Task: inverse folding
């Protein structure tokens, strides 16, 4: 019996790319994934990928220059693509804009396990409540039946469980004033569609996580940053803003702020609400990190201090349990919840009932609180370890504040541009979130996470960054 000849790796890559073009997955004008991505996907060296792409270029199938993306050429596949819609143009002019290219690069790299993710905004595998979730899924499985679509507000018994959970934090919210959503981002999307008008202004902290999302901008709204200090958003600056009735809203993340880790003290929270009451302005409170305190609980949520129904309060299990559950909630006036539930029915008919069952059992069984008790201690240890690493390596190059909870330490370098540091670290397989994606005007800040990377990854990542900074210093001195 003869031996079957194995095809060369570069030939396999060529055939795979051609197949995607012929199947219409990569129509003319499409960008081919980067050489690094293709090398990881096919488990080969980049030189093998380069050889495959060079052959495809020679055949007139793709084109691209050194340092730029490679795209599918129209003329080589003209007959095949004669009736293909101009998808690239369609996408380019769609209502929803693309993410910032740097944000796209980060999002894509986060799924590549060859990178060291030392900025990632999730809990690491060692903090994941796998055993607790296993118990809950087993229990929820016994209740599987025909669920139907529901009314868009979410399972009543889960809303009741969320109501009880919020009550323990001092927030009075009946089940009828709670909307179950598929994560906090969906709550923001619903608010942008159902509460705000086009051409509205969204006031928010600067820097802010929201700047890295085109969500509000796609709805025709303007983002107006308010400067922060060590106590969070500077409420005295709110009084100087141009507020418009029914055409403006304040978005704030006052507890363990992303990316800075700042927590707004009680007196400033009261001042913020006082100002918003005076100008009759609604507030979106993004409170998804509230339960992630490390030693002492944070001040009450804005919603707990709200006596006029002015605050739309958003919570989620994405940071405390697992983003894959896709469970969050929003509390607000009943009329607003009904309005957003109606929009929700037009979008997707509601969150998965299986996920809702799991979330309900977590809250009512006591497993959620038990889990939070365990991870607070672990997060505290990891935060302190990262602080030690930062002090050992960057005490001369940067400064930072110590967060009392959440996931992040926001590091401000004195003379290193965050984009330049990001690019150099990326080449060495370290993934950073530079402050520029959060519209940090200093442009020298980097978000570090102590929640996702393990101890070895933190140590290795910091060492690589230290070496990069030393190298950049040498170049600057020679120049």
Result:
């Amino acid at each position: 019996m003869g031996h079957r000849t194995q095809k060369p790796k570069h030939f396999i890559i060529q055939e795979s790319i051609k197949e995607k073009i012929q199947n219409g997955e990569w129509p003319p004008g499409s960008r081919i994934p980067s050489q690094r991505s293709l090398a990881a996907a096919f488990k080969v060296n980049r030189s093998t990928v380069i050889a495959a792409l060079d052959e495809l270029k020679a055949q007139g199938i793709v084109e691209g220059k050194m340092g730029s993306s490679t795209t599918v050429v129209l003329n080589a596949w003209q007959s095949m693509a004669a009736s293909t819609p101009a998808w690239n143009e369609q996408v380019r002019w769609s209502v929803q804009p693309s993410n910032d290219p740097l944000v796209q690069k980060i999002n894509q790299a986060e799924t590549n396990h060859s990178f060291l993710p030392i900025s990632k905004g999730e809990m690491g595998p060692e903090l994941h409540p796998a055993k607790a979730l296993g118990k809950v899924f087993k229990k929820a499985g016994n209740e599987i039946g025909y669920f139907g679509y529901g009314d868009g507000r979410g399972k009543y018994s889960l809303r009741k469980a969320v109501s009880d959970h919020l009550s323990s934090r001092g927030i009075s919210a009946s089940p009828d004033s709670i909307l179950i959503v598929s994560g906090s981002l969906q709550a923001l999307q619903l608010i942008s569609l159902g509460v705000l008008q086009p051409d509205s202004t969204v006031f928010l902290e600067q820097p802010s996580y929201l700047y890295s999302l085109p969500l509000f901008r796609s709805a025709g709204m303007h983002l107006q940053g308010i400067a922060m200090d060590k106590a969070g958003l500077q409420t005295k600056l709110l009084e100087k803003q141009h507020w418009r009735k029914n055409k403006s809203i304040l978005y704030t993340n006052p507890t363990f702020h992303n990316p800075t880790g700042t927590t707004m003290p009680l007196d400033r929270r009261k001042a913020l609400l006082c100002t918003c009451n005076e100008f009759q302005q609604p507030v979106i409170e993004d409170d998804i990190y509230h339960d992630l305190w490390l030693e002492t609980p944070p001040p009450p949520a804005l919603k707990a201090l709200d006596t006029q129904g002015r605050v739309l309060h958003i919570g989620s299990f994405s940071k405390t349990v697992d983003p894959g559950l896709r469970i969050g909630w929003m509390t607000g006036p009943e009329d607003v919840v009904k309005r957003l539930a109606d929009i929700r029915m037009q979008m997707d008919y509601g969150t998965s009932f299986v996920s809702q069952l799991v979330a309900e059992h977590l809250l009512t069984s006591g497993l959620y609180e038990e889990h939070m008790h365990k991870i607070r201690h672990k997060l505290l240890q990891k935060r302190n370890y990262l602080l030690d690493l930062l002090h050992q390596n960057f005490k001369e190059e940067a400064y930072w504040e110590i967060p009392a909870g959440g996931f992040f330490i926001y590091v401000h370098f004195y003379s290193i541009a965050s984009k330049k540091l990001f690019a150099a670290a990326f080449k060495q397989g370290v993934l950073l979130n530079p402050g520029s994606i959060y519209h940090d005007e200093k442009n020298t800040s980097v978000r570090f996470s102590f929640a996702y990377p393990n101890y070895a990854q933190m140590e290795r990542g910091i060492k690589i960054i230290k070496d990069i900074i030393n190298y950049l210093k040498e170049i600057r001195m020679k120049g």
